[in-house]
Each structure stands twice: as structure tokens, then as C-alpha cells.
Design a protein that fits this description.
With 908 residues, the chain is of the alpha+beta class. It contains 22 helices and 40 strands. Strands 1, 2, 8, 9, 10, 11, 19 and 20 form an eight-stranded mixed sheet that branches. β10 and β11 form a beta hairpin. It starts with a helix and ends in a 14-residue tail after the last helix. The N terminus and C terminus are likely disordered.
């Protein structure tokens, strides 16, 4: 093997000589790999499995893939007594890896989301269980030191330290000299500091998988090696799994689990009803360096995030890798290798050169090291860089656990538990909605889309997590409303959700209609778009604004049994007069939110459901799963059929009345009602008298062919009212100030209506519905946490670090942590940061009922990046003043989305 000239010209002479002396020739590689692996990549565990020549005719569950994830699922399922037979098949061997392959082996506990952090903590719990049973998992609790070259990175570290408290994780900030004390060989002259994470550790994923498999086998799981799956059989009528065809025979089964790693997408296509698993494969280099034996390295894991590199020490060697800004896709032609042993890629020193340069900078002594080998093993990433977990959207009982990238060793414990619970109980004991397979559509599984996205996803792994950071540049302008070109010409800055382009704010002065601008905020403080959003906010509150709501999920539901069916699915009473709108949750057996939606009753047996954008696939699955097979009910996703324009502001009725012939007076078209109207020359427009943010206004669902006409008509007629355009950021500020909870941000699968001030939307006296028993029990015992609004009173928006959009900051009551925030935004009426979140009443480790007196009697603070700010607490939606001097609906003024008083008659 030769070193390319470009790399050779860059390398330090001493290092170049080491490479020349130590890079293995191709014909020597296979001979050397075995001894190298035994010494370094494994701790010597060896568990032998009999290679079954045939497969059983039937099994309750078939798991495809015996890596660390597949073995963890088998392990967790095998612990469920009396569940039935479990078979795990693999086209290679148990926990097989490519010759000479090396994974990072790093278990990191600080993740961006709570669900990912919990999964890592559960992995540690399983590791400790295996260690107690005598297995050598290679576990080394060495901690991790993350380095910062930039001030913004240190701000991120302060945020991580603050937010980790709510996850039970301890971190410590370090100065550059303290980083040098911990790792004397580091170059620290260009550092701002670092953060020490003591709970991070390293382990051997192969040994862990073998240990899990051994335990699973002892509990009755059958492992079949060298067995290829060629088809997943489906009962077409019930759309559920009924068997698996392999080259060793057919297995009739009830459940199938796809955890085939790189092959997960391909395996999804082998199902008789193809299952979408949008993963892409990316080259992943790891360099092994060996120092003189006299040098001792016993250091924590080192992550130089701004250099995009990491190091870990093991058995006297340094294993280093990284995440380049633009990754190199693997297998562009979608021709995957037949087995793990064939998947090694060419060690591309040219491509690795960027990371190597950073490594030499951070550890100068590497120039004296022997470069033992550079491996290049592809890793599987999902289209958005998050794991893909759960039951497929196309076929019932077809489960997926894929896209764990290089992080499978961190997540295996949580993933195994969740998939096991979904199979055996039908529901997981923890929320993981941000990782759920329901979060994507068919467009995300497009091969060209994934090929382009593969270059971009890995680079986000070490990126600074700014607010709205990392809007993807690939896979854009796919789903657009008909008015997209008009919005773009007005300077719209777009973000993307479920593939839909939606305006975040407008900046016509600095953006031309030919500029392709996407949301990209690189600050933790007051953003550059602040004044733009302030104007849009004022337009919504004082005049009239148009907002594009087209991305919202829209589903028509109809049939003779539709009322009875929705009564069972919804916690509110859906049997309202035709033309009425109700807001309701669809609860799960725990009482948590599976869906949070509005239902407009179009006719006696016809409803239109409006749900959050991210719920488009999820709510359809929930309907599909829970509508009885003999019920006379149909539903259709009409999201792409309508363009939705929200007319918001105190003059919205004036504007709408000028462009329609319909009577929209408060008597004929009251708050929370539906009417079909015309606008301009267009008809068949579904108009809803609500805005989802608490402001006066209407949302008009316009057949797409009329969208441009209606939009132009509204703009022309609105000139006399100084009509403006507003985006998502203004809407976010409006809803946070009005204390409106949104699903996926404040509400999740374990948040109940009673906890978030929505008891009045739960009608216990209407009869049975999903989650009723759990909510009745919670009411009797008292809620253990309560949803509150916190308005910071001493925060300086011009000087201080802003609160996190996605929450996670600790909430203090009388100096003691009592909860955490879920959402925040700048409140333009409050003129300060405004946070939403949950508080608990904990004493001696026990959660006590939370009462109104408990909440209102405390002094509150919110900690942001290490600094506590005093806060005023609200239990219900505030009434915000407006300068507009026009009459408004009494019902609308009295309406509060979150209330502190509940009518006891609801609990009959």
C-alpha cells in the first residue's frame, strides 16, 4: 500500500517514515488482523453458537441482525416470562465485524434530547448487569473531556452543564490550564476551555453483543448464523407481518424486527408491502496510533468538537476519528456488500487528511507515533441524524431499530428496552417521539435524497447547537405551497419541517427573490432577525397579518360510525353541532398525548382534523391502528390538497368581510366555528375561526388551484389595513406568551391533560375513551407535575444568553430545582424571555401532589447557561393588552387555552 503524494507532502517527515514502515501490505493484512484484534479490539470474550442448518417453522418474533442492537432486543425480550419463541437470524455471524474494523466504543451520556440521554443511562445499567454476571465488556469509566476553541462553544458547554442537571448528569467546566493538567500531551494554547463529563466511558461493542446473546440464548432465544432473509411475508388484508422467508426455510411469525444496520433500508424493501427505512451509508475512518511503551496514556475520552475529532486511549494505543464537515457517502449505487466481512472500504488518506491535520494540531506528539492502521468502515445514518425506532407505518408488527450511526453502543440498552416493550405491551414506558419512525414521509426514503443528505448529516454531529441550527441544505424545495414563490419574493427565510418549506421570518430589505436563504442562526444571544420578528409580531397583534399554515396536517374523517369512533379515540366530546370546532387530545393508555388536534365538524358524519406538521404520519397510524375493522369509518390525508393561509390580527374580520360574500359576523360565524366560504372569485374554502396562538383571526383552507388568487386578493384588499406577512418565529412568540402548549415541544406521550391545565377538555362523563382510566386515577391521586409559564424579570435581552428554544433549563423554586423548561421565546409584549415548563413537588426523593398553593407560594428562578434569573410564574393564560381599538368577541376574550379552574361536572 502506498501513500498518496498529496498526503505525503503534508505529513511531518517523522510521521511519514512511521507510516511507510508500518502500513500493512494487502497480502499481510489478513494474517495480522487476528492478532491485532485479540490484543486491542476485544477483551478476549468468545461465545460459540451452534450453526443451525434449518430454521424453526414458527416463532413469535424474528429479529434480523445480531449486532449490539439486535442482541439487546433479543436479551430484553427473553426476560419477558412466557412470551414465546424468539429467533435471531444473521447473514453473517453473531456480532460479526469486518476484519480489522474498529468502532469508537464511546458511550456518551450528554445528548441533545432527554430520550437519547435516558437510552445511554439504560445502556450503562445493562452494562453493569453484564459485568455483575462476570462478562468482560471492556467497560472503562474514564470520563470525557470536551474541548472548546470558540467562545460560543463554551456557551454551549455552560448550557449543557445547566441542562444536564435535569437529566441527573454531572459536568464540570474547566479552564485551558485545567484541561492541560488532565491531559499533558494536549495543545491548549488556542482553547477557551472545556467541560468534563465523568459518566462518559468506553466499552467493547462486540463483547457486549456476545454477552447479551449468551444471556438471551440461556433464556431460550435461538440464534441462526449465515442465514439470509429474502422476503418478509404480509397478510395483505390485515396489513400485518405473517412470516419471514430465508435461504434456510420459512418462519411463520407474529412480529419481525429489522435491526440490520447498513442493510436496514434494503431489508425494508424486501417486505411484501415495502417499509420505509431512510438511512444512508457514510465512510467512517478510525486511525490507530501506537506510542513508545515508555509513554503512558491513561486519559479521558478527548473530543475536540471544533476540530471535529475525538481520541480515546485503549491498551496503550490511541484510537482517533472524527466527523468531517462534508462526509463521503458509501455505496452510491446502493449495492451493499453481501456480509459484514465484505464491507470494509478503501482507507482514503486523502479524505482523512482534513481530520489528520486537526489531530496533529491537538496532539503534537502524534508525529512521533507509529500509525498502525487506518480503517474505513461505513456507518448508517438516518436522513436527519437521529435514530429510527418503532413500529413501521406501512405494516403492523414490523418493527425497526436502525440509523444508530456510530452511537449504537450508547443506545443499545434503551433501544432494546423500548422495542421489547412495544412488542410485548404495545406501548413503551418512556417517551421517544423525536426518534419515532413516524416522523418521516416517503420522500425521505428517496435514494437520491439520501445520497445527497449523506454528505451533510455526519457533520452536524459535532456542530454547535445554536437555536434553529443545522437547517439542511440538501433535500430542499421539495414540498412547497403554491404561494411559496410569492413568499420567497417578499424575502422569506425558510425552515423545513416534514419536508415542507415554511417561512420563519421575512427580510425583504436584505434578500432578493433570487436568493435561496434558509434559517441559519449562529448565536446564543439576541439574533440578527430580532427586529424583523418584532415587526411581524406587532402586525399580528395590532393590525392584520397573513401566515402560511400549509404545512399543518389536514385529515378528513367520515362515515356512519365516525362519531362513535372519535368519541373513543378523543378525550374531549366530539359530538358537537355541525359547524363547531373542538380542540382535543388523543390519549394513550397512560393518559399521555398521542395527538393534539382540532376537529371541525363539516357535516353530521364528516370531520376535518387539523394537527401539528410533525404529526402527519403519526396521527394517521394512530387512526389506522385504533379504528375497528368493522367500523364504517374512512379517513384521507388531504394535507397536500389545501393551501392554508391564516389571517391574524384585530382587523382580520374587517379584511375577510371585504373579500367574501358570506356573512362572517360574530353571530353567524362565532369563535371556534367552521364555515365554507368564498374569497374573491374562489369558492369551496374551509374557514376556521381560530388561529392556534390565541390571537383574533381565521385559518382558510383553500383548494390549491385557488391559492394564488386568494393570496393576491387578500394582499390587495389588506393594503388599507397595512397588511403584513409573518412567519413561524412570530407565531412561536405569540403562542408562548398566550401559554399555548404544542405537541412535540411541550406535550409528549407521557404528558396528560390534567398536568398541563387542560382538564376542562377531558369529558369523563361521555363514556369510555382511550386513557380514561389512567386520567381518572391521576385525578384521584393528584397530579405530580404542573405546566407553568415563567416570565424572566431580570434578564437583559441585549446582553445575556437567551433561553433555549427547546427548553431543558432547570426551574428553581425557593432555591431548589423543581422542574425544567420545555419551550421558550422572547415575549414582545412582556419585553423579556418567556418560558413554558413543568414543576414538581419533591421531598426526600418522593413526588408529592402539586397544588395551586404550592406553585403560587414559591419564588422562582430559571437557570440559563449557568446564571439564574428571577421569574414570575403563571398558572393560566394571561390576557395581553392591545392598542387596537375595535370590538372583539366576548367568547374569544374569555377563552384561555390553559386554565387553573376546572368545572367538576366534567368528572362525573
Amino acid at each position: 500500500m502506498k501513500i498518496c503524494r498529496k498526503t505525503a507532502s503534508y505529513l511531518h517527515p517523522a510521521m511519514l517514515n512511521n507510516i511507510r514502515r508500518n502500513i500493512l501490505k494487502k497480502n499481510e493484512l489478513k494474517r495480522c488482523i487476528s492478532s491485532i484484534s485479540q490484543q486491542d479490539d476485544s477483551t478476549g470474550a468468545s461465545i460459540l453458537f451452534n450453526k443451525n442448518e434449518s430454521v424453526p417453522n414458527t416463532s413469535r418474533v424474528v429479529i434480523c441482525g445480531s449486532g449490539i442492537i439486535g442482541c439487546s432486543i433479543a436479551y430484553h425480550l427473553s426476560k419477558v416470562k412466557g412470551f414465546g419463541q424468539i429467533v435471531c437470524v444473521d447473514m453473517g455471524q453473531i456480532a460479526e465485524t469486518s476484519p480489522g474494523s474498529i468502532n469508537s466504543g464511546i458511550i456518551g451520556v450528554t445528548k441533545l434530547s432527554s430520550s437519547e440521554s435516558r437510552f445511554a443511562q439504560q445502556s450503562m445499567k445493562v452494562l453493569n448487569e453484564l459485568q455483575a454476571l462476570g462478562y468482560d465488556t471492556g467497560l472503562k469509566k474514564c470520563g470525557a473531556l470536551n474541548l472548546a476553541r470558540k467562545k460560543d462553544r463554551m456557551t454551549e458547554f455552560r448550557k449543557i452543564k445547566t441542562q444536564s442537571m435535569s437529566k441527573g448528569i454531572t459536568c464540570r467546566l474547566l479552564r485551558p490550564d485545567e484541561c492541560a493538567d488532565m491531559c499533558p500531551f494536549l495543545e491548549v494554547s488556542d482553547l477557551e476551555g472545556g467541560i468534563l463529563i465523568p459518566d462518559d466511558c468506553i466499552a467493547d461493542s462486540k463483547n457486549i453483543a456476545l454477552a447479551l446473546a449468551d444471556q438471551a440464548k440461556k433464556n431460550g432465544v435461538t440464534f441462526i448464523e449465515n442465514c439470509r432473509v429474502s422476503k418478509v411475508l404480509v397478510d395483505k388484508k390485515k396489513e400485518c407481518v405473517e412470516g419471514v422467508v430465508t435461504d434456510k426455510g420459512t418462519i411463520n411469525c407474529t412480529y419481525f424486527v429489522n435491526c440490520a444496520g447498513l442493510w436496514a433500508r434494503q431489508l425494508g424493501q424486501l417486505c411484501e408491502i415495502p417499509v420505509k427505512v431512510p438511512i444512508c451509508t457514510v465512510a467512517n475512518h478510525v486511525l490507530v496510533s501506537k506510542f513508545d511503551k515508555s509513554k503512558k496514556f491513561d486519559t479521558p475520552i478527548i473530543r475536540d468538537l471544533d476540530g471535529r475529532i475525538y481520541f480515546r486511549e485503549s491498551f496503550g494505543k490511541i484510537y482517533s476519528g472524527g466527523y468531517e464537515k462534508e462526509a463521503k457517502p458509501a455505496f452510491n449505487d446502493s449495492t451493499l456488500p453481501e456480509s459484514p466481512s465484505d464491507r470494509s472500504l478503501y482507507a482514503d488518506w486523502d479524505h482523512f487528511r482534513v481530520l489528520l491535520k486537526e489531530m496533529l494540531h491537538r496532539i503534537p506528539s502524534l508525529k512521533d507515533a507509529t500509525f498502525e492502521r487506518l480503517t474505513n468502515i461505513p456507518e448508517a445514518y438516518s436522513y436527519d441524524g437521529l435514530w429510527i425506532l418503532g413500529e413501521s407505518t406501512e405494516v403492523r408488527n414490523f418493527f425497526v431499530a436502525a440509523g444508530t450511526k456510530t452511537d449504537g453502543i450508547s443506545s443499545f440498552g434503551g433501544v432494546g428496552q423500548v422495542i421489547s416493550e412495544l412488542i410485548t405491551k404495545g406501548f413503551a414506558s418512556q417517551d421517544f417521539h423525536n426518534l419515532d419512525i413516524n416522523r418521516f414521509l416517503g420522500l425521505h426514503n428517496n435514494r437520491r435524497f439520501l445520497r445527497d443528505r449523506a454528505m451533510e448529516v455526519p457533520g452536524r454531529h459535532y456542530a454547535i447547537s445554536y437555536p434553529y441550527f443545522g437547517e439542511f441544505k440538501t433535500g430542499r424545495n421539495i414540498r412547497m405551497s403554491p404561494i411559496f414563490p410569492m413568499l420567497k419574493s417578499e424575502g422569506a427565510v425558510f425552515g423545513q419541517t416534514m419536508g415542507y418549506e415554511r417561512p420563519f421570518y421575512f427580510d425583504k430589505e436584505n434578500i432578493t427573490d433570487t436568493t435561496r436563504l434558509m434559517m441559519d442562526t449562529k448565536t446564543f444571544s439576541k439574533p440578527a432577525y430580532f427586529d424583523n420578528v418584532a415587526k411581524e409580531y406587532e402586525c399580528c397583534r395590532e393590525r392584520v397579518a397573513l401566515l402560511d399554515y400549509s404545512s399543518f396536517t389536514k385529515i378528513d374523517i367520515w362515515g356512519n360510525d365516525v362519531v362513535q369512533t372519535l368519541q373513543y379515540l378523543c378525550s374531549n366530546d366530539v359530538d358537537v353541532p355541525v359547524g363547531s370546532i373542538i380542540h382535543t387530545g388523543m390519549q394513550n393508555p397512560y393518559g399521555g398525548y398521542e395527538n393534539d388536534c382540532s376537529l371541525a365538524r363539516i357535516s353530521e358524519n364528516y370531520y376535518m382534523m387539523i394537527a401539528p406538521t410533525i404529526q402527519q404520519q403519526r396521527c394517521k397510524n394512530w387512526l389506522k391502528k385504533h379504528i375497528s375493522s368493522d367500523a364504517r369509518v374512512n379517513f384521507s390525508d388531504v394535507t397536500s390538497k389545501y393551501t392554508a393561509i391564516c389571517i391574524m390580527g384585530p382587523f382580520s374580520r374587517n379584511l375577510l368581510s371585504e373579500v367574501t360574500d358570506c356573512d362572517i359576523s360574530s353571530q353567524n360565524f362565532p369563535f371556534f366555528s367552521y364555515r365554507e366560504i368564498d374569497i374573491g372569485l374562489a369558492n369551496g374554502i374551509r374557514a376556521l375561526n381560530l388561529t392556534h396562538t390565541g390571537e383574533i383571526g381565521y385559518v382558510c383552507y383553500i383548494p390549491n388551484e385557488f391559492a394564488l388568487h386568494v393570496y393576491s386578493t387578500l394582499l390587495e384588499a389588506g393594503k388599507k389595513y397595512d397588511v403584513g406577512l409573518s412567519g413561524y418565529l412570530a407565531m412561536r412568540s405569540l403562542r408562548v406568551e398566550k401559554f399555548y402548549a404544542f405537541w412535540g415541544q411541550d406535550l409528549d406521550t407521557f404528558t396528560t391533560p390534567l398536568e398541563c391545565g387542560r382538564s376542562w377538555r377531558v369529558k369523563f362523563n361521555k363514556g369510555d375513551f382511550i386513557g380514561r382510566d389512567a386520567l381518572l386515577k391521576q385525578k384521584a391521586e393528584g397530579i405530580k407535575r404542573a405546566y407553568v409559564q415563567l416570565i424572566l424579570t431580570d434578564h437583559d435581552a441585549d446582553l445575556d444568553v437567551w433561553t433555549s428554544n427547546n427548553g431543558g433549563e432547570p426551574i428553581y423554586r425557593d432555591g431548589k430545582i423543581t422542574g425544567y423548561t420545555t419551550t421558550s421565546s422572547y415575549g414582545f409584549t412582556f419585553k423579556t424571555q418567556c418560558c413554558l415548563g413543568f414543576v414538581e413537588n419533591t421531598e426526600n426523593g418522593h413526588c408529592l401532589p402539586v397544588t395551586t398553593d404550592f406553585i403560587t407560594s414559591g419564588d422562582y428562578e430559571v437557570e440559563v447557561a449557568g446564571i439564574r434569573y428571577s421569574a414570575k410564574v403563571n398558572l393560566h393564560s394571561p390576557n395581553l393588552p392591545t392598542k387596537a381599538d375595535i370590538p372583539t368577541d366576548r367568547d374569544r376574550e374569555a377563552y384561555q387555552a390553559t386554565r387553573d379552574k376546572v368545572d367538576d361536572s366534567y368528572f362525573l
